[in-house]
Amino acid sequence: MTSMTASIANFTFNDILLNAAGVYCQTDEELDQILKADGAGSLVTKSATPIERAGNPGVRYADMPLGSINSMGLPNLGLDYYLDYTIKHQSEKPLFLSIAGLSKADNLNMLKEIQASDFNGLVELNLSCPNVPGKPQTGYDFETTAQILEEAFAFFDKPLGVKLPPYFDIAHFDMIAKILNQFPLAFVNTINSIGNAMMVDPETDTAMIAPKGGFGGIGGAIAKPTALANVRALRQRLNPEIKIIGTGGVKTGRDVYDLILCGADLVSVGTTLHQEGPQVFGRLKQELADEMSKKNYTDVTDFRGQLQTLA
Ligand code: RRO
């Protein structure tokens, strides 16, 4: 028997895979499919704002040869919708509720509402949406990130984690880890899509998506090396109590394996879930088990964080 479990805060996950926020998680119907999917150990709801948002107009998601590009613009049904869903289903599995306020006040007000509610799962504070026109990614503003966490932890005492943008400089890994280590975070989720990229449709010579003049976040296979680097760099720097959800570039069980090797506790799937649907979790779980048995591992703890580097 292969053991693929993880723990975050006081929760045990019986499988290590889940959806990446934004994919298959906007409506009850989609969320139900993830909840029931073979191989999925949890789910995360679409990042919520205090009230419903339509998101960006026009073509806002496109598949591309090595992944996807999106500028959805935070379409969601509002915090109360996802709070109701997660409270209703929280006895079945540990669940993540994602929030993404457009201001510090929005984030703190949503956390106050969650604190006062019957929700007893984990909250993912999304500091990295790249696609709201005029709103920079908070995770690239170290001072504001520290300020939000300072004010949040003054009253919030349910398990809280942050969704981070990818970082691209060793100095930035050091800086964000130093800030995060000052707070009792349950987890970080790394990475969000690689923001403000561009892809051209060779048939039409146009940008592939409409919002923001074609700029959007990229995910899928092309994001894997950046995801591995961010998981690895943060695992090397964060307090061991802060667990890691690895996100980015998962197409096969080997990709899941690699994120775990770099230090991921749970692994989430975005673009490939969008392309294949919820049965992807069963396939990835089987492929991960096959990969582990090739190496004679029976438990993910046998290799989690055990990446070797060359001399
Ligand atoms: O809705 C989006 O455009 C979106 C969000 Br909130 C996010 O965090 N990451 C992303 O790639 N798209």
The average pLDDT is 98
Write down the CATH class.
Answer: Alpha Beta
State the CATH topology.
TIM Barrel
Distance between the termini: 35 Å
Structural class: alpha/beta
Helical segment count: 9
Percent of residues in helices comes to 25-40%
List cofactors, ions and other ligands: ligand RRO
- Give me the CATH architecture, please: Alpha-Beta Barrel
CATH superfamily: Aldolase class I
Write a structural description:
With 311 residues, the chain is of the alpha/beta class. It has a single domain (6-58, 74-196, 220-302), classed as TIM Barrel (Alpha-Beta Barrel), CATH 3.20.20. The chain has helices at residues 28-36, 79-89, 104-116, 142-153, 170-180, 224-237, 253-261, 271-276, 280-294, and strands at 6-8, 11-13, 17-19, 61-64, 67-70, 96-99, 122-126, 160-164, 187-190, 194-197, 200-201, 206-207, 216-219, 243-247, 266-269. The strands form four sheets. A seven-stranded parallel beta sheet has the order 3-15-14-9-8-7-6. A hairpin with a 2-residue loop joins strand 4 (61-64) and strand 5 (67-70). Helix 3 runs parallel beside helix 4, helix 5 (170-180) crosses helix 6 (224-237) and helix 7 (253-261) packs across helix 9 (280-294). The longest helix is centred in the C-terminal third of the chain and has 15 residues, at 280-294. The mean pLDDT is 98. Bound molecules: ligand RRO. Ligand RRO is lined by residues 22, 47, 70-74, 100, 126, 128-131, 192-193, 217.
